[in-house]
């Protein structure tokens, strides 16, 4: 049995993990999700929703040894949390996620990708402190393989995304890299090209799901099974010294 903390990506919230949490619990694990600052139902104003605040929210939500799962943009906050305090992090799982490089922001990494599937999708708010997505583009990029009712629910649940966390670089990722890490590549992803996921996962054990960008909605049972397998492999590793 493992303890999972599931961290959502851009404009999403804890709501997106409901089916995956249920599937993980059915497999005997503890699992929960949180809203990052300024996302979902969290009331933090956009100008206060920093990458450091995201790391703090994650660390405050942990109790004992925890496997952190970060989807998409959440690769940055789970790595930031590990850089702040890796003590209670059993493993980091990057789910179709950005794996930070030192001194590069998420926006830098997005622009460095081999293609730009989200070009034209962003809608900045007048104060430029958050952004939303064009619903038509979001439906195709995020939820193309989801049941129509699930996709409609998800589109209606998206909230503005604070800009600051995605414009902040980490000076180092050494502590995160010292932890057990895993990458789940979504091979039908229309948001982050699978080939770019492969590049970002260099040096990290990688497995595939034959899904689009949102397997927590399109294939939650398969995702939970993969996370359970990762947990088993993590538990089988020798304990870290020091």
Describe this entry's structure for a reader.
- Residues 4-225 form the AB hydrolase-1 domain.
- One of its GO terms (molecular function) is methyl indole-3-acetate esterase activity.
- InterPro entries: AB_hydrolase_1, AB_hydrolase_fold, MES/HNL.
- This is Esterase.
- By secondary structure, the chain is an alpha/beta fold.
- It has a single domain (3-235), classed as Alpha/Beta hydrolase fold, catalytic domain (Rossmann fold).
- It has helices at 18-26, 51-61, 75-84, 106-111, 135-143, 148-157, 174-177, 194-200, 215-218, 220-236; strands at 3-7, 30-34, 66-71, 89-95, 122-124, 130-133, 161-162, 181-186, 206-209.
- It has a 6-stranded parallel β-sheet, with helices on both faces.
- Helix 1 packs across helix 10 (220-236) and helix 2 crosses helix 3 (75-84).
- It is globular and about 50 Å long.
- The chain starts with a strand and ends in a 6-residue tail after the last helix.
Q: What is the count of distinct domains?
A: 1
CATH-defined superfamily: Alpha/Beta hydrolase fold, catalytic domain
Tertiary shape: globular
CATH topology: Rossmann fold
Would you identify the regions where 5 or more consecutive residues have pLDDT less than 50? Answer: none
Q: Helix- and strand-based class?
A: alpha/beta
What is the architecture at the second tier of CATH? 3-Layer(aba) Sandwich
What's the total helix number? 10
Task: Let me know the largest β-sheet.
Answer: 6 strands, parallel
Provide the residue-averaged pLDDT.
95
The level-1 CATH class: Alpha Beta
The protein's oligomeric status is single chain
Question: End-to-end span in angstroms?
Answer: 24 Å
Radius of gyration: 16 Å
Strand content: 15-25%
User: Could you tell me the number of beta strands?
Assistant: 9
Topology as a string of helices (H) and strands (E): EHEHEHEHEEHHEHEHEHH
Protein name: Esterase
Organism: Paragemmobacter aquarius
GO molecular function: methyl indole-3-acetate esterase activity; methyl jasmonate esterase activity
InterPro entries: AB_hydrolase_1, AB_hydrolase_fold, MES/HNL
């Amino acid at each position: 049995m493992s303890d999972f903390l599931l961290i959502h990506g851009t404009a999403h919230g804890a709501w997106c993990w409901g089916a995956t949490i249920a599937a993980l619990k059915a497999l005997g694990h503890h699992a929960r999700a949180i809203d990052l600052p300024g996302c979902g139902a969290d009331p933090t104003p956009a100008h206060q929703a920093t990458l450091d605040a995201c790391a703090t929210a994650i660390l405050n939500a942990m109790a004992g040894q925890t496997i952190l799962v970060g989807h998409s943009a959440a690769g940055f906050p789970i790595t930031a949390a590990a850089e702040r305090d890796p003590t209670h992090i059993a493993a980091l799982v990057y789910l179709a996620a950005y794996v930070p490089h030192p001194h590069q922001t998420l926006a830098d990494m997005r622009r460095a990708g081999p293609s730009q599937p989200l070009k034209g999708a962003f809608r900045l708010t007048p104060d430029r402190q958050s952004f939303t997505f064009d619903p038509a583009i979001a439906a195709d990029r995020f939820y193309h393989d989801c049941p129509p009712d699930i996709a409609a629910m998800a589109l209606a649940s998206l909230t503005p995304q604070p800009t600051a966390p995605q414009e902040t670089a980490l000076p180092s990722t050494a502590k995160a890299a010292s932890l057990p890490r895993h990458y789940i590549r979504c091979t039908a992803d229309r948001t982050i090209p699978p080939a770019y996921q492969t590049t970002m996962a260099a040096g990290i054990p990688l497995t595939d799901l034959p899904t689009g960008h949102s397997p927590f909605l399109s294939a939650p049972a398969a995702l939970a099974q993969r996370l359970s397998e990762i947990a088993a492999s993590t538990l089988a590793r020798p304990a870290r010294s020091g």
